[in-house]
Predict the structure.
Amino acid sequence: MGKKKPRLLLAVETSCDETSAAVLEGNKILSNIILSQDEIHSPYGGVVPELASRQHIKSIDYVVGESLLQAGLGLEDIDLYAVTQGPGLIGSLLVGLTFVKGLAYYFQKPIVGVDHLQAHIEAAFVENPGIEYPVLALLVSGGHTSLYFLEKPLSYRLLGKTRDDAAGECLDKVAKFLELGYPGGPVIEKYAQNGDSSRFHFSLPRMKTPGYDFSFSGLKTAALRIIRENNLDKNHPLLSDFLASFEETVVRALLENLARALDEFQSSSLILCGGVARNKRLRTRFSELAQQHHLPAYIPSPRLCTDNAGMVGALAWKKYQATPKVCFDLELDAYPR
Ligand code: KG4
Ligand code: ZN
Protein backbone atom coordinates (compact mmCIF):
# COMPACT_ATOMS: atom_id res chain seq x y z
CA MET A 1 0.00 0.00 0.00
CA GLY A 2 1.25 3.51 -0.84
CA LYS A 3 2.38 5.93 1.87
CA LYS A 4 0.24 8.87 0.76
CA LYS A 5 -2.72 9.71 2.99
CA PRO A 6 -5.93 8.22 1.55
CA ARG A 7 -8.08 10.97 0.11
CA LEU A 8 -9.99 9.64 -2.89
CA LEU A 9 -12.61 7.00 -2.37
CA LEU A 10 -14.72 4.88 -4.74
CA ALA A 11 -18.00 3.59 -3.30
CA VAL A 12 -20.35 0.95 -4.74
CA GLU A 13 -23.96 0.18 -3.76
CA THR A 14 -25.90 -2.79 -5.17
CA SER A 15 -28.06 -3.93 -2.26
CA CYS A 16 -31.41 -3.92 -4.08
CA ASP A 17 -32.43 -2.57 -7.48
CA GLU A 18 -30.17 0.44 -7.99
CA THR A 19 -26.66 0.02 -9.35
CA SER A 20 -24.70 2.95 -8.02
CA ALA A 21 -21.10 4.14 -7.81
CA ALA A 22 -19.70 7.34 -6.35
CA VAL A 23 -16.33 9.02 -6.11
CA LEU A 24 -15.59 11.10 -3.02
CA GLU A 25 -12.76 13.32 -1.95
CA GLY A 26 -12.91 12.99 1.82
CA ASN A 27 -16.61 13.45 2.60
CA LYS A 28 -17.24 15.55 -0.52
CA ILE A 29 -19.14 13.70 -3.24
CA LEU A 30 -17.52 14.34 -6.63
CA SER A 31 -19.85 12.05 -8.58
CA ASN A 32 -22.80 9.84 -7.68
CA ILE A 33 -24.16 7.72 -10.54
CA ILE A 34 -27.42 5.84 -9.95
CA LEU A 35 -28.80 3.41 -12.52
CA SER A 36 -32.31 2.38 -11.55
CA GLN A 37 -33.84 -0.96 -12.54
CA ASP A 38 -37.43 0.27 -12.08
CA GLU A 39 -38.38 -0.50 -15.68
CA ILE A 40 -37.20 -4.10 -15.38
CA HIS A 41 -39.18 -4.82 -12.20
CA SER A 42 -42.25 -2.69 -12.96
CA PRO A 43 -44.17 -5.43 -14.87
CA TYR A 44 -43.87 -7.68 -11.77
CA GLY A 45 -45.02 -5.03 -9.26
CA GLY A 46 -41.89 -5.55 -7.14
CA VAL A 47 -38.20 -6.42 -7.27
CA VAL A 48 -37.41 -9.85 -8.74
CA PRO A 49 -34.13 -10.83 -6.99
CA GLU A 50 -32.69 -12.94 -9.81
CA LEU A 51 -33.34 -10.21 -12.40
CA ALA A 52 -31.84 -7.63 -10.04
CA SER A 53 -28.51 -9.42 -9.65
CA ARG A 54 -28.26 -10.15 -13.37
CA GLN A 55 -28.85 -6.47 -14.15
CA HIS A 56 -26.22 -5.38 -11.60
CA ILE A 57 -23.71 -7.61 -13.39
CA LYS A 58 -24.59 -5.92 -16.69
CA SER A 59 -24.44 -2.37 -15.29
CA ILE A 60 -21.68 -2.29 -12.70
CA ASP A 61 -18.77 -1.77 -15.06
CA TYR A 62 -20.51 1.10 -16.84
CA VAL A 63 -21.69 2.76 -13.62
CA VAL A 64 -18.23 2.65 -12.01
CA GLY A 65 -16.67 3.96 -15.24
CA GLU A 66 -19.16 6.85 -15.37
CA SER A 67 -18.52 7.78 -11.74
CA LEU A 68 -14.78 8.03 -12.44
CA LEU A 69 -15.34 9.92 -15.69
CA GLN A 70 -17.57 12.50 -14.02
CA ALA A 71 -15.03 12.95 -11.22
CA GLY A 72 -12.26 13.33 -13.80
CA LEU A 73 -10.27 10.50 -12.24
CA GLY A 74 -9.00 7.02 -13.09
CA LEU A 75 -8.94 3.84 -11.01
CA GLU A 76 -5.24 4.35 -10.34
CA ASP A 77 -6.13 7.55 -8.40
CA ILE A 78 -8.39 5.76 -5.91
CA ASP A 79 -6.92 5.35 -2.40
CA LEU A 80 -9.78 3.59 -0.67
CA TYR A 81 -12.83 1.47 -1.57
CA ALA A 82 -16.25 1.36 0.07
CA VAL A 83 -19.04 -1.13 -0.51
CA THR A 84 -22.42 -2.04 0.96
CA GLN A 85 -22.22 -5.36 2.83
CA GLY A 86 -25.90 -5.60 3.79
CA PRO A 87 -28.72 -5.83 4.50
CA GLY A 88 -30.17 -6.46 1.05
CA LEU A 89 -30.66 -9.12 -1.60
CA ILE A 90 -27.76 -11.52 -1.27
CA GLY A 91 -27.20 -12.00 -5.02
CA SER A 92 -27.27 -8.24 -5.60
CA LEU A 93 -24.95 -7.48 -2.69
CA LEU A 94 -22.43 -10.03 -3.91
CA VAL A 95 -22.14 -8.34 -7.31
CA GLY A 96 -20.95 -5.05 -5.76
CA LEU A 97 -18.85 -6.75 -3.11
CA THR A 98 -17.05 -9.03 -5.54
CA PHE A 99 -16.45 -6.21 -8.01
CA VAL A 100 -14.90 -4.00 -5.33
CA LYS A 101 -12.82 -6.86 -3.93
CA GLY A 102 -11.38 -7.44 -7.41
CA LEU A 103 -10.39 -3.77 -7.74
CA ALA A 104 -8.98 -3.57 -4.22
CA TYR A 105 -6.97 -6.74 -4.79
CA TYR A 106 -5.57 -5.51 -8.09
CA PHE A 107 -4.65 -2.06 -6.78
CA GLN A 108 -3.75 -3.30 -3.27
CA LYS A 109 -6.01 -0.79 -1.49
CA PRO A 110 -8.15 -1.10 1.64
CA ILE A 111 -11.93 -1.68 1.60
CA VAL A 112 -14.43 -0.30 4.12
CA GLY A 113 -17.59 -2.40 4.44
CA VAL A 114 -20.74 -0.36 5.07
CA ASP A 115 -24.19 -1.15 6.49
CA HIS A 116 -26.91 -0.02 4.08
CA LEU A 117 -29.27 1.27 6.77
CA GLN A 118 -26.56 3.27 8.53
CA ALA A 119 -25.62 4.69 5.12
CA HIS A 120 -29.21 5.96 4.62
CA ILE A 121 -28.86 7.87 7.90
CA GLU A 122 -25.48 9.20 6.80
CA ALA A 123 -27.13 10.71 3.70
CA ALA A 124 -28.46 13.47 5.99
CA PHE A 125 -24.91 14.37 7.08
CA VAL A 126 -23.72 14.73 3.46
CA GLU A 127 -25.57 18.02 3.11
CA ASN A 128 -25.39 18.96 6.81
CA PRO A 129 -22.14 17.69 8.35
CA GLY A 130 -22.75 19.66 11.55
CA ILE A 131 -25.93 17.86 12.67
CA GLU A 132 -25.93 17.91 16.45
CA TYR A 133 -26.05 14.70 18.50
CA PRO A 134 -27.94 13.00 20.04
CA VAL A 135 -30.06 12.28 16.98
CA LEU A 136 -33.33 10.42 16.50
CA ALA A 137 -33.38 8.96 12.98
CA LEU A 138 -36.44 7.56 11.23
CA LEU A 139 -35.47 5.34 8.30
CA VAL A 140 -38.29 4.53 5.90
CA SER A 141 -37.54 2.49 2.79
CA GLY A 142 -38.88 -0.31 0.64
CA GLY A 143 -37.20 -2.99 2.72
CA HIS A 144 -36.96 -1.36 6.15
CA THR A 145 -38.77 0.86 8.60
CA SER A 146 -36.67 1.55 11.67
CA LEU A 147 -36.13 4.09 14.39
CA TYR A 148 -32.59 4.74 15.65
CA PHE A 149 -31.06 6.75 18.46
CA LEU A 150 -27.52 7.98 17.84
CA GLU A 151 -25.93 9.34 20.98
CA LYS A 152 -22.68 10.09 19.15
CA PRO A 153 -21.21 9.50 15.67
CA LEU A 154 -21.23 5.86 14.54
CA SER A 155 -23.28 4.66 17.53
CA TYR A 156 -26.57 3.22 16.33
CA ARG A 157 -29.13 2.13 18.89
CA LEU A 158 -32.10 0.46 17.22
CA LEU A 159 -35.25 1.50 19.11
CA GLY A 160 -37.78 -0.25 16.89
CA LYS A 161 -38.35 -1.76 13.47
CA THR A 162 -41.22 -3.16 11.49
CA ARG A 163 -42.49 -6.53 12.57
CA ASP A 164 -43.89 -7.31 9.13
CA ASP A 165 -44.00 -5.13 6.00
CA ALA A 166 -41.86 -2.02 5.61
CA ALA A 167 -43.78 1.21 4.94
CA GLY A 168 -42.46 1.39 1.36
CA GLU A 169 -43.36 -2.25 0.81
CA CYS A 170 -46.91 -1.51 2.01
CA LEU A 171 -47.18 1.34 -0.55
CA ASP A 172 -45.68 -0.87 -3.27
CA LYS A 173 -48.09 -3.75 -2.58
CA VAL A 174 -51.20 -1.57 -2.63
CA ALA A 175 -50.00 0.02 -5.90
CA LYS A 176 -49.41 -3.46 -7.32
CA PHE A 177 -52.92 -4.54 -6.36
CA LEU A 178 -54.28 -1.50 -8.20
CA GLU A 179 -51.97 -2.26 -11.15
CA LEU A 180 -50.32 1.14 -10.85
CA GLY A 181 -46.77 -0.18 -11.46
CA TYR A 182 -43.54 -0.24 -9.43
CA PRO A 183 -42.31 1.56 -7.38
CA GLY A 184 -45.68 2.28 -5.82
CA GLY A 185 -44.71 5.18 -3.53
CA PRO A 186 -44.25 7.85 -6.21
CA VAL A 187 -47.42 6.81 -8.14
CA ILE A 188 -49.51 6.83 -4.98
CA GLU A 189 -48.10 10.25 -4.12
CA LYS A 190 -49.11 11.57 -7.54
CA TYR A 191 -52.72 10.37 -7.25
CA ALA A 192 -52.94 11.39 -3.57
CA GLN A 193 -51.95 14.99 -4.29
CA ASN A 194 -55.44 15.90 -5.44
CA GLY A 195 -57.33 13.62 -3.07
CA ASP A 196 -59.33 14.20 0.10
CA SER A 197 -57.41 12.39 2.85
CA SER A 198 -60.43 12.29 5.17
CA ARG A 199 -62.67 10.46 2.67
CA PHE A 200 -61.72 6.90 3.75
CA HIS A 201 -61.19 5.81 7.32
CA PHE A 202 -58.23 3.65 8.37
CA SER A 203 -57.38 2.69 11.95
CA LEU A 204 -53.81 3.33 12.98
CA PRO A 205 -51.79 0.18 13.68
CA ARG A 206 -51.51 -0.47 17.42
CA MET A 207 -48.75 -2.62 18.90
CA LYS A 208 -49.78 -4.82 21.80
CA THR A 209 -46.34 -4.61 23.43
CA PRO A 210 -44.43 -1.52 24.57
CA GLY A 211 -41.53 -0.15 22.51
CA TYR A 212 -41.14 1.46 19.14
CA ASP A 213 -41.77 -1.33 16.65
CA PHE A 214 -43.89 -0.64 13.57
CA SER A 215 -46.44 -2.78 11.74
CA PHE A 216 -47.88 -2.16 8.28
CA SER A 217 -49.39 -5.47 7.21
CA GLY A 218 -52.75 -4.72 8.92
CA LEU A 219 -52.94 -1.41 7.11
CA LYS A 220 -52.17 -3.14 3.81
CA THR A 221 -54.93 -5.72 4.42
CA ALA A 222 -57.40 -2.94 5.31
CA ALA A 223 -56.45 -1.08 2.11
CA LEU A 224 -56.96 -4.16 -0.06
CA ARG A 225 -60.36 -4.78 1.58
CA ILE A 226 -61.52 -1.20 0.83
CA ILE A 227 -60.30 -1.53 -2.78
CA ARG A 228 -62.36 -4.72 -3.22
CA GLU A 229 -65.47 -3.41 -1.44
CA ASN A 230 -65.53 -0.23 -3.52
CA ASN A 231 -64.34 -1.81 -6.77
CA LEU A 232 -61.56 0.77 -6.92
CA ASP A 233 -59.29 0.79 -9.94
CA LYS A 234 -57.12 3.18 -11.95
CA ASN A 235 -60.10 4.99 -13.41
CA HIS A 236 -62.36 5.14 -10.37
CA PRO A 237 -63.34 8.73 -9.41
CA LEU A 238 -62.59 8.00 -5.72
CA LEU A 239 -59.10 6.61 -6.30
CA SER A 240 -57.34 9.88 -5.43
CA ASP A 241 -59.33 10.22 -2.21
CA PHE A 242 -58.60 6.61 -1.28
CA LEU A 243 -54.85 6.95 -1.92
CA ALA A 244 -54.68 10.27 -0.08
CA SER A 245 -56.39 8.66 2.95
CA PHE A 246 -54.08 5.66 2.77
CA GLU A 247 -50.90 7.75 2.38
CA GLU A 248 -52.02 9.97 5.25
CA THR A 249 -52.43 6.92 7.52
CA VAL A 250 -48.97 5.57 6.62
CA VAL A 251 -47.47 8.97 7.48
CA ARG A 252 -49.39 9.18 10.76
CA ALA A 253 -48.33 5.65 11.77
CA LEU A 254 -44.69 6.54 11.16
CA LEU A 255 -44.77 9.84 12.99
CA GLU A 256 -46.82 8.64 15.95
CA ASN A 257 -43.99 6.27 16.89
CA LEU A 258 -41.41 8.99 16.45
CA ALA A 259 -43.44 11.40 18.60
CA ARG A 260 -43.53 8.84 21.42
CA ALA A 261 -39.77 8.32 21.18
CA LEU A 262 -39.27 12.08 21.39
CA ASP A 263 -40.86 12.04 24.84
CA GLU A 264 -38.44 9.39 26.09
CA PHE A 265 -35.17 10.20 24.29
CA GLN A 266 -33.56 13.59 24.73
CA SER A 267 -32.36 14.46 21.24
CA SER A 268 -30.91 17.58 19.65
CA SER A 269 -31.80 16.78 16.02
CA LEU A 270 -34.17 14.69 13.94
CA ILE A 271 -33.34 12.84 10.72
CA LEU A 272 -35.76 11.39 8.19
CA CYS A 273 -34.20 9.16 5.53
CA GLY A 274 -34.72 6.25 3.10
CA GLY A 275 -36.60 6.10 -0.21
CA VAL A 276 -40.02 6.89 1.29
CA ALA A 277 -38.51 10.11 2.72
CA ARG A 278 -38.93 11.49 -0.83
CA ASN A 279 -42.65 11.70 -0.08
CA LYS A 280 -43.81 15.32 0.26
CA ARG A 281 -46.58 14.64 2.78
CA LEU A 282 -44.12 12.77 5.02
CA ARG A 283 -41.45 15.48 4.64
CA THR A 284 -43.91 18.23 5.56
CA ARG A 285 -45.42 16.40 8.53
CA PHE A 286 -41.99 15.38 9.81
CA SER A 287 -40.79 19.00 9.69
CA GLU A 288 -43.95 20.15 11.48
CA LEU A 289 -43.40 17.58 14.24
CA ALA A 290 -39.79 18.74 14.65
CA GLN A 291 -40.96 22.34 14.85
CA GLN A 292 -43.48 21.49 17.57
CA HIS A 293 -40.58 20.02 19.57
CA HIS A 294 -38.27 22.96 18.72
CA LEU A 295 -35.79 20.63 17.07
CA PRO A 296 -34.01 20.99 13.74
CA ALA A 297 -35.21 18.50 11.10
CA TYR A 298 -32.82 17.09 8.51
CA ILE A 299 -34.10 15.31 5.42
CA PRO A 300 -31.68 14.48 2.59
CA SER A 301 -32.57 15.93 -0.80
CA PRO A 302 -34.67 13.41 -2.79
CA ARG A 303 -31.74 12.05 -4.82
CA LEU A 304 -29.87 11.16 -1.63
CA CYS A 305 -32.96 9.47 -0.11
CA THR A 306 -33.02 6.72 -2.74
CA ASP A 307 -30.32 4.05 -2.69
CA ASN A 308 -27.05 5.66 -3.81
CA ALA A 309 -23.34 5.06 -3.42
CA GLY A 310 -22.68 8.64 -2.28
CA MET A 311 -24.14 7.89 1.15
CA VAL A 312 -22.12 4.65 1.30
CA GLY A 313 -18.91 6.53 0.55
CA ALA A 314 -19.72 9.23 3.11
CA LEU A 315 -20.21 6.67 5.87
CA ALA A 316 -17.09 4.76 4.81
CA TRP A 317 -15.08 7.95 5.09
CA LYS A 318 -16.44 8.61 8.61
CA LYS A 319 -15.64 5.02 9.62
CA TYR A 320 -12.18 5.23 8.09
CA GLN A 321 -11.41 8.44 9.96
CA ALA A 322 -12.56 6.89 13.24
CA THR A 323 -10.52 3.72 12.64
CA PRO A 324 -7.87 4.35 9.94
CA LYS A 325 -6.48 0.85 10.34
CA VAL A 326 -9.19 -0.69 8.15
CA CYS A 327 -7.85 -3.84 6.70
CA PHE A 328 -7.21 -4.71 3.12
CA ASP A 329 -10.06 -7.08 3.61
CA LEU A 330 -10.78 -9.81 1.09
CA GLU A 331 -12.66 -11.71 3.80
CA LEU A 332 -15.40 -9.07 3.82
CA ASP A 333 -18.71 -10.89 3.46
CA ALA A 334 -22.26 -9.92 2.48
CA TYR A 335 -25.15 -10.23 4.93
CA PRO A 336 -28.76 -10.33 3.71
CA ARG A 337 -30.35 -9.25 7.04
O1 KG4 B 1 -34.46 3.35 0.07
P1 KG4 B 1 -35.02 2.81 -1.21
O2 KG4 B 1 -34.60 3.46 -2.49
O3 KG4 B 1 -34.71 1.28 -1.35
C1 KG4 B 1 -34.67 0.40 -0.25
O4 KG4 B 1 -33.62 0.36 0.44
O5 KG4 B 1 -35.72 -0.23 -0.02
O6 KG4 B 1 -36.61 2.85 -1.05
C2 KG4 B 1 -37.50 2.42 -2.03
C3 KG4 B 1 -38.93 2.67 -1.56
C4 KG4 B 1 -39.99 2.02 -2.43
O7 KG4 B 1 -40.88 1.30 -1.59
C5 KG4 B 1 -40.69 3.22 -3.07
O8 KG4 B 1 -42.06 2.98 -3.35
C6 KG4 B 1 -40.52 4.28 -2.02
O9 KG4 B 1 -39.21 4.07 -1.54
N1 KG4 B 1 -40.65 5.64 -2.55
C7 KG4 B 1 -41.63 6.50 -2.19
C8 KG4 B 1 -41.44 7.67 -2.95
N2 KG4 B 1 -40.35 7.48 -3.75
C9 KG4 B 1 -39.88 6.23 -3.49
N3 KG4 B 1 -42.64 6.37 -1.31
C10 KG4 B 1 -43.48 7.42 -1.17
N4 KG4 B 1 -43.38 8.56 -1.88
C11 KG4 B 1 -42.38 8.73 -2.78
N5 KG4 B 1 -42.29 9.86 -3.47
ZN1 ZN C 1 -32.20 1.58 0.81
